[in-house]
Amino acid sequence: MRALRWHGKHDIRCDTVPDPVIEHGRDAIIKVSSCAICGSDLHLYDNFIPGTKSGDIMGHEFMGEVMEVGNANTRLKVGDRVVVPFTIICGECDQCRRGNFSVCERSNRNKALADKAFGHSPAGLFGYTHLTGGYPGGQAEYVRVPFADAGCIKVPASLTDEQVLFLSDIFPTGWQAAVQCDIEPADTVAIWGAGPVGQFAIRSAVLLGARQVIAIDHVPERLAMARAGGAITIDFDEESVIERLNALTDGKGPEKCIDAVGLEAHASRSIDSLYDRAKQAVMLETDRPHVLREMIYVCRPAGTLSVPGVYGGLLDKVPFGALMNKGLTLRTGQTHVNRWTDDLLKRIEEGEIDPSFVITHNVSLEQGPLMYETFRQKQDGCIKVVMKP
Ligand code: NAD
Ligand code: ZN
Ligand code: ZN
Fold this sequence. Notes:
This protein is of the alpha/beta class. It folds into two domains: about 1-170 and about 335-389, Medium-chain alcohol dehydrogenases, catalytic domain (Quinone Oxidoreductase, Chain A, domain 1), CATH 3.90.180; about 170-330, 3-Layer(aba) Sandwich (Rossmann fold), CATH 3.40.50. Helix content is about 30%, strand content about 20%. It has helices spanning about 40-45, 95, 110-120, 150, 160-165, 170-180, 195-205, 220-230, 240-245, 270-280, 290-300, 320-325, 335-350, 370-375, and strands at about 1-5, 10-15, 30-35, 55, 60-70, 80-85, 85-90, 125, 140-145, 155, 190, 210-215, 230-235, 255-260, 305, 330, 360-365, 385-389. Strands 3, 5, 6, 9, 10, 17 and 18 form a seven-stranded mixed β-sheet that branches. It has a six-stranded parallel β-sheet with strand order 13-12-11-14-15-16, with helices on both faces. It is globular. The N and C termini lie close together (about 10 Å). Bound molecules: nicotinamide-adenine-dinucleotide and zinc ion (ZN) (2 copies).
């Protein structure tokens, strides 16, 4: 089959590789009809997260048709159309039973490695380093889905791939980011990053009833999409984020702040990001936490910081004193995808939201390597790439 494989920094190739086979009774083999490139894939593309090996198959946002099921898999049958969440879940462990799916205790087959790095292992993830299982990803013609009876979401034929594909990740991710803010009707929610995750966080915050939603980025078409979704926008190249956020909140700061940027933050107007770049370049720091610093500084006391943006390792000069003394709540995590998908699928079916708004590029798998670069460079108005293997 054809698959997009990582061969090193900025080197993704569409290769021919062996087809996957059933390895366990609960597995299923999915023929991928649509898959997408995520901002999280860019962290691997840019080689900021350790644990990817040359030849690893990329991708964790995908859907398709069930081709084959293992003998213990009683829930799925050949021909079912399913969306596959990026978090692999057993559905039975203590964390899965509590709905904490992204920290499933059984799905990371390299658990010992992650236990060492993090103290306790999170769930296994598709196409996302050997620290989270080294599972071949979904930017491919076929994928083996472990514990497929627990994770897969069956989707109705009445909805297009483009409408349901993002249930695999970015829609529940933006939703969870907003839900974790416990939005109240008087709240201002400020969202850093108007990439795909930021776009879904904006629409989720609006759906959850925030009084004012403010989006921060510097890419014009992303800011325009944010405004179309109901946000006021701030271009961080053009003005001071902190001054404008204070001005929009009577000097008090936003009650709720969402970091939809993560470890590769840019900042043209601040000295701290130059410092981060220098330290990151000589490996004294793994991540660039400019957005986290800005959120801690500007957030209203007793407010909440919600962080869907991915961080990999060690952060420098995070003003923890301000966080503590202002009494801020910090909420984080890879998304507990299956916790939200029944509700979100219903909202799509009822026409409350059509997630396909975010797609700017719909291409073949062969064009994937080029699309990684286009998405990374934000060329050609690129916001979200969908590929058809
Ligand atoms: P993306 O790279 O397309 O978007 C990031 C956006 O942040 C870009 O538009 C960029 O211009 C903007 N940005 C950079 N520096 C900024 C700054 N200082 N202030 C404001 N905006 C800034 O990525 P995406 O697909 O939207 O993903 C966003 C983040 O969410 C990534 O870190 C990704 O890994 C993470 N993510 C997390 C989960 C999860 O489960 N928690 C799931 C999916 C994605
Ligand atoms: Zn993702
Ligand atoms: Zn589990």
